[in-house]
Specification:
Number of domains: 1
Helix content: over 70%
Mean pLDDT: 88
Order of helices and strands: HHHHH
Structural class: mainly alpha
Distance between the termini: 54 Å
Largest sheet: none
């Protein structure tokens, strides 16, 4: 049986894992979203709002801009 301290640590670890995975999926979803927007340009304003935090982060840390641009280009280039 777990002690209350162990139970709190387990919950904290689970919560942290969920947050990290959610953020990772959010960033990785940029690629598929670029394909959708490239085929449906009327969605561009929504795309810009949803991914505004990533755009802000790229402006704050320009070193992230090239890898993210390459990732989006890869998705657009691999779409049928």
């Amino acid at each position: 049986m777990e002690t209350p301290d162990e139970e709190k640590k387990g919950r904290a670890g689970t919560t942290l894992s969920i947050v990290v995975i959610s953020l990772l999926l959010y960033v990785l979803s940029v690629g598929p979203a670029v394909i959708v927007v490239s085929r449906n340009s009327y969605l561009l304003p929504y795309y810009m709002k949803i991914y505004a935090p990533i755009n802000w982060l790229c402006k704050l840390a320009p070193s992230l801009n090239d890898p993210l641009s390459n990732y989006m280009d890869w998705w657009v280039g691999s779409s049928p």
